């Protein structure tokens, strides 16, 4: 444990840079504890606040700009990839779209304070065409606020943090084991949260081929589009009605309860569609199914959409 603290004291800026970079790229390695500890070490003269802040902001901006470029080049595909590798629930795309649609690039000011939002917001900014200058400006300020708060907290509580570090140092290898156990518990809790969320959404799906066959047979199910307004501008499945994010918990649905209902979105595991389908089933609808693959699978199969 003593060796680890010597590394932090000697190579703290390097550790901060790569820790922040890895976290903002999506790795489950929280950077806030590192920022708080290095902030506490400033009173020893190990670092200066401006250099420490600049290091953290630079690392965050590099990672965020890479996601921005990926979103700009690959569009919505990168959003799905992000949610698959993230330990946050798969509804993150829908929530991020809603926040970003409402506040625009200004949401980047608080993005890093919202779990699962930062990297997806960066990719979404590139996807919807936010200018590079605007993105870099707001993302830099947001990163400075995020890192600056951690450094300030470390400096403010430096005495208490020093006492804690001294205790861990005295514990030796047991202190290292406590740190490793804390990290393992953090990752495990995030994984379990995601697993529980996905299990709660298990239900029968309908494929795009099966939905197209219903149309050909003259069967017209009620189709519900739960994507954000910005996503809906690219087109909808013919006959689909829309539900905004503000209405997702209180929407009015007047279809007969015995009518088949198909709900679709554009998020991993049909998360948003499954959530709405669950609500409809609780209201008494018996034939409710999310569309497997959502609108992306429908378009990829070459089926018609309404503009």
Q: How are the SSEs ordered, and which strands pair?
A:
Layout: H1 2-25, H2 32-40, H3 49-74, H4 76-85, H5 92-103, H6 118-127, H7 132-156, H8 158-171, H9 173-200, H10 208-216, E1 222-225, H11 229-232, E2 241-242, E3 261-264, H12 271-282, E4 288-290, H13 294-300
Parallel strand pairs: 1-2, 1-3, 3-4
Helix pairs in contact: 1-2, 1-3, 2-7, 3-4, 3-6, 3-7, 4-6, 5-6, 8-9
Report what the structure shows.
The protein is mainly α and about 300 residues long. The protein has 2 domains: about 1-200, no CATH class; about 210-300, Oxidized Rhodanese, domain 1 (3-Layer(aba) Sandwich). It is about 60% helix and about 5% strand. The protein has helices at about 1-25, 30-40, 50-75, 75-85, 90-105, 120-125, 130-155, 160-170, 175-200, 210-215, 230, 270-280, 295-300; strands spanning about 220-225, 240, 260-265, 290. It has a 4-stranded parallel β-sheet, covered by helices on one side. Helix 12 (about 270-280) links the parallel strand 3 and strand 4. Helix 2 (about 30-40) packs across helix 7, helix 3 crosses helix 6 (about 120-125) and helix 8 (about 160-170) packs across helix 9 (about 175-200).
